[in-house]
Amino acid sequence: MESLAQLEALCDRLYNSQDPAERAHAESTLQCFSTNLDYISQCQLILESSSSPYAQLLASSSLLKQVTNHTLALQLRIDIRNYILSYLASKGQELQAFVIISLIQLLCRITKLGWNDDDRFKEITKEAMKFMSQATVEHFYIGLRILNQLVQEMNQPNPCLSLAHHRKIACFFRDSALLQIFQISLTSLGQLKRDADDRLRQQAMGLALKCLSFDFVGTSQDESSEELGTIQIPSSWKGLLEDMSTINLFFDYYAISKPPLSNQALECLVQLASIRRALFSGETERMKFLSHLLSGTREILRTQQGLSEHVNYHEYCRLLGRLKTNYQLSELISVENYNDWIRLVAEFTIRSFQSWQWASGSVYYLLGLWSRLVSSVPYLKSNFPSLLDAYVPKITEAYITSRFDSVQQAIVQNNLAEDPLDNEEHLQDQLDSLPFLCRFQYERSSAFILQLLDPILQSFTEASRVPNPAEGSRLSIIEGQLTWLVHIIGSIIKIRQNSASSAEVHEVIDGELSARVFQLLQVTDSGSHVQRYGERSKQRLDIALLSFFQHFRKVYVGEHSSKQLYARLSELGVQDNLVALNIIVAKIATDLKCYAQCEDVIQQALNLFQELPTGYMSGKLLLKLDAVNFILANHTREHFSFLDEPSNSRHRTTFYFTIGRLVFMEDSVSRFRTAIAPLQQVFLSLEATPDSAFRSDAVKYTIVGLMRDLRGITMATNSRKTFTPLFDWLYPAHFSVIIRALGHWVDTPEVTTPLLKFMAEFVVNKTQRLTFESSSPNGILLFREISKLLVAYGNGIMALPTPSDIYAYKYKGIWIALVILTRALGGNYVNFGVFELYGDPALADALDVALKMSFSIPLADIAAYRKVARSYYAFFEVLCHHHLSVIVNLDTPTFSHVLGSLEAGLKSLDASISSQCASAVDNMSAYYFTHITLGESPTSPMSINFARHIQERPNIFPQLLKSLFELVLFEECSNQWSISRPILALILINEQAYTDIKIQIIASQVLLYPLVTRPPDSQQKLLLGFEKLMTDVNRTLEPTNREKFTQNLTIFRHDFLAK
Q: Exposure winner among 101, 153, 754, 963, fewest CB in 10 A?
């Protein structure tokens, strides 16, 4: 930079310019500050000399990147820390807020990374308190801000540290500093209770919340989950939390403040309500704590203080929900003023349900509270009444009534109201809790449901008899109300087996409720209702019916059938579970016919259809049904219009998977031929289509549909007996059509993706289904077709220009093609030696095109797309295991590229990928040691090529060995056994290189890993570990010798990582 002014101008453009090109130029010019270590001193000079906030931001953010991405000398890090503290103390009052935030983030990052390197980093709390002890408000604010950022930094993983290293630092911080920081937050809150500066109070409250939300035991809990139960606060916090002034402080702050301070106070109380039982000195202290919680929440309900604020309301509902999560019903009942508390909570719940539009996101917590309360009643041993009998039925009725009101308002007000039925996540959460309330006093709740349902069902039935009903909105309201009731009845049926009440009584009531649903089913697809399939309210009703049948089937169809329930259903003609199954399948068929353009209904219907054949007996029962046999005989677009809708093409696989499972339930060739007859006609039609018409949209959609159908049927074959008829039908008669289709549509992923996915399913030898007779050439013939397909696709896709969406148009097809070849090579149904013996180029052509496709993808893109990476490394693992000569016979640069990609794969966070790479390296190194190092067959062409590669690239194996040692010793790897397998062979190949690597790793501890939480004797541990590593290990790769080495390595790793 020529001048400071020039730099400030660039910084201003970087952060403020609206011109992307200008911003990009500034970023490129200034990048050196964050990447080049020589510019660290320049960053300090900028902070010292510039008054531009953007230049200051550049300096602080660049230093943050330098500290994070590079290993800096200890003294340099300490100097940066001291300078930032001094800078904030002297100039903090003058700085912009975003500059202060960036500087504090830098300070806390450097503190975390150096926490175990020097005790001066651990004095950060004292340094923050120095700020807070000064007279100015700004210094007090900076001190609190430092502590806030410090706790946050310590609680979240960093990209420069492995998760294990992060947790060690976090644990040391938790044990040595977190309690003091929490005490500072409480003291500050006490001092600031009447302070007018909300900034300070928000920082103090935020600090308390961060302390209470700290990941104490390394579980990385999801704060959105209400199933956490308890938080594992350390025992050293006991005295502070048993002091009732702590909990009262947060209730006081809630009472005197507004959001965001008030809702943060409630969040702190939510955490306090989740404290583990063992923290308290005894039950007396714990019950005293609970008493204060109930007293505080009761007072909020009594005064309604702050509940008009939505964020307060939401957090208060969370607080109520946490009370029952962490405390038993008997404990709640024994608290003084419980009766008043439960009454106020019940009234609050009812009001919340009535205000459904405002409190929709909070209903879940209230339903969860009451469901947990009623679920505890059977285990209640207390002399005090729970009073739940008086309140739960009213709450249940209020909820159902409010859902009815929501339908009315959503339709009448249309855009002014959000329909809760449209929020599937909230709907499912509520239906998980509500049935426990309904079954608590089932007779009363069911009577209320029937009281609402019967007149609505009557109106719906009468509407079906009107040819052209005029009041469409009125019918939509009826359908919406029926949707709610069907969902509620289905959720009640769902938990039948979890109910602790009298079985016979509940089955009778289940029969009454289910009878209404079956009665509704008789009407919903009749009369004028058949004109409403395009209406959203009708679609939601049918989704609810399908959901009900899912639950009904699991509870009352099959071995769980009930005499009491079917006695009631027999009045409607449903005498047993076989009749019920037939009705369910008929409903599925109707929906598949009538809802071609509603994907939600199609998906729900197919999910239910897919579940029906689960279990051998269920499948056998289904084959007796007329509705099932109709589907098996007529699965064409003429009967099921959803097959004719391109948007449903993905669902065809599910449809035909279920059809396939049903067809293969019985060993019947005639049933199979009948089922595939429609697909046979499609093949014949495609064969008769001339090339000139093969690129039409009609042919495209036909091919896509056929491939998805075939994939579904293939997925259903799980044995040689079921796969053989399918193979004999497709080969050789129809494979030419498949390859022809690929040739014509190779540039269209919409066609190639389902085609390749079908082939990937067809060639996988799951459950040994592709096992042919010893005299059969089918395995070889199948691979020849696979080779033709791969060559056609590979040559076609490689000839196309680079597309804008390279994954969709190129990489996706390539990874599926690699999966096809990988499964074929590893399927054990082809004798690959035959191809070379008889001069058949099928294998060589397939491997050649697969390698070309693999090498066309840059390593950076392989790492960026997980599915691409998985298929790439699985392919090379199979090559190294079964066809190593293919890799060895490559030219040296390409061979080196392959091994470089394997080294990159070893470092993948995906354990399956790193394990595949380790297996590939193990096979290669074992071959090299056995055939070249030991010299058993050094004159073979393969060995000569291999030796030449290593001679030209002597660092390949040593670099792999070093990387493997660093992974095993310094990283948290769940697949340690797999990663460690190649190490012995790599050591034996070049023992001198192993000696050099030992020296490098031991010497590099100070330079490479200063940030890791290592004890001072880490180098000594490494030295001893390496000395013992080869104890009792011989110079062979026999299995017993490998196991001994692996045991030694495991002990080495354990001893080194131990504190």
A: 101
Indicate the SS3 state at residue 229.
coil
Q: What are the residues facing 275 on neighbouring strands?
A: 231
Same domain, 816 and 882: no
Buried b (16+ CB within 10 A) or exposed e, 12-27: ebbeeeeeeeeeeebe
pTM to 2 decimal places? 0.85
Residue 789, sorted as left (phi over 0), alpha (psi -120 to 50) or beta, turns out to be alpha
Is 136 inside a domain boundary?
no
Same domain, 870 and 853: no
Burial of residue 255 (CB within 10 Å: 0-12, 13-18, 19+) is: middle
pLDDT tens digits for range 614-649: 765 677 788 888 999 999 888 988 889 888 888 888
Rg (CA), the chain: 35
Q: Which residues of 947-957 are buried (b: 16+ CB within 10 A; e: fewer)?
A: bebbeebeebb
Which whole-number Å values give the CA distances from 1016 to 165, 669, 968, in the listed order?
A: 15, 74, 20
What's the DSSP call for residue 602? H
Q: How many domains does the chain have?
A: 2
pLDDT in tens, 389-420: 999 999 999 999 999 888 888 777 665 456 78
Alpha-carbon distances, residue 757 vs 63, 229, 754, 814 (angstroms): 49, 44, 5, 11
Q: Is 147 exposed, middle or buried (0-12, 13-18, 19+ CB in 10 A)?
A: buried
Task: Supply the DSSP symbol for 458.
Answer: H
Cα–Cα distance measured from residue 427 to residue 488, given in angstroms and rounded to the nearest whole number: 10
Same domain, 1009 and 934: yes
Q: Where are the alpha helices (DSSP H) in 414-534?
A: 424-440, 442-464, 472-494, 503-524
Residues 823 and 847 in one domain: yes
Residues 870 and 851 in one domain: no
pLDDT at 264: 95
pLDDT at 559: 66
Q: Does 890 share its domain with 1019? A: yes
Cβ neighbours of 151 (radius 10 Å) = 26
Cβ within 8 Å of residue 59, ≥6 positions away: 33, 43, 44, 46, 47, 50
Angle, helices 137-155/124-133, rounded to nearest 10 degrees = 160
The string of DSSP codes covering 934-972 is S-SSTTSHHHHHHHHHHHHSTTHHHHHHHHHHHHHHHS-
Same-domain status, 1016 and 1049: yes
Alpha carbons 362 and 274: distance in angstroms, whole number? 19
φ, ψ of residue 1011 to 5 degrees: the values are -90, -15
Domain annotation covers residue 363 = no
Name the pLDDT band for 867 (thresholds 50, 70, 90). Answer: very high
Tokens of 783: 């691979």
- Domain of residue 793 covers 667-857
Q: What is the mean pLDDT of residues 22-27?
A: 91
- Candidates 241, 174, 250, 253; CA nearest to 214 is 174
Would you say the C-alpha torsion 298, 299, 305, 311 has a positive or negative sign?
negative
d(CA 821, CA 1035): 36
Torsion angles phi and psi, residue 357, rounded to 5: -70, -30
